[in-house]
Write a structure and sequence with these properties.
Blueprint lengths: L2 H14 L3 E2 H8 L3 H13 L5 E4 L4 E4 L17 H16 L6 H15 L6 H7 L12 H13 L1 E9 L4 E15 L2 E8 L4 E6 L3 E10 L5 H9 L11 E7 L1 H7 L9 E4 L5 E7 L2 H9 L5 E5 L1 H16 L2
Antiparallel strand pairs: 1-3, 2-3, 4-5, 4-8, 5-6, 6-7, 9-11, 9-12, 10-11
Helix pairs in contact: 4-5, 10-11
Length: 321
Amino acid sequence: MDRTERFYKIDNLLQANKVVPIAQMLRELEISKATFKRDIEYMRDRLHAPIEWDRERGGYRYASTPETGRQALPGLWFNASEAYALLMMQSLLSDMQPGLLRAHIEPLKARLRAVIETGHHTAVDVENRVRLLKVATRTVSDKHFEVVAAALLARERLEIEYYGRARDQSTMREVSPQLLVHYKSNWYLVAWCHLREDVRSFSIDAIKHGKPSAKRAKEIPIAALDEFIGKGYGIFSGENVRWAKLRFSAVQARWVSREQWHPKQRTYPSDDGSLVIEVPFTDVRELSMDILRHGRHVEVLEPPDLRESVRQELTLALASY
């Protein structure tokens, strides 16, 4: 636990209890008494935290005020996941065009700005200093998204004309919508495809036309859908789950060691600084693309067909130069 994390922990303990004995503080923080006292002094002097020593009960507390009764630790903002969630919500609301929800969205945006300012930083300051950059986002037609979402929630089938980029062909499909998934800044529909008689994922921006049918959607158990979207690497899925073994150079391992390619991945650091990662996959397409972005710093060890696919792609790329 680093120092900033300890400040959060101390603040949480003081918020949750009227008085926190010093023995409990040391046990929860797993630090020495001397380190703890330095933390308390820093929080008082530099962060202006109203922390008091309660002599009668032998512990620390937040000073109370007639207005609030308690005071929070000033100066700290949100952790990484909280900041991302708040700024993403703000970004999504700001991008929305005026429509039926306008009357509801403006008060919501005002509330969101107020939450962002709870860290004692103005919302304007946060907006100027913290940015979310949208990369590789594909435009989705509002009309198509609304049709898909309506059929999904009404549990109705959809008739769609779907453009397959790989084959540069459009096909007519009847699908039973199951899930909407936002993945890597893009929207996908997970649905039972009545043409293929299997669960498939469809990029919503590749739907050319869509209309609901009067037929009831085929129901797929949630457990089966969870398995489908988490079975292998990326948005593509299938029944044949295999494992890819990738070796990253010592240089690239400094970054890759902190990445999660898949929740079930297995990681093996080596004495020379290189890193081996094993990930489950069912389709080589997306995995190959993510492997290729690491260039000469990654080698596919297994399986042979994935290794060959990456080798062929590198050979074709080299031919362009």
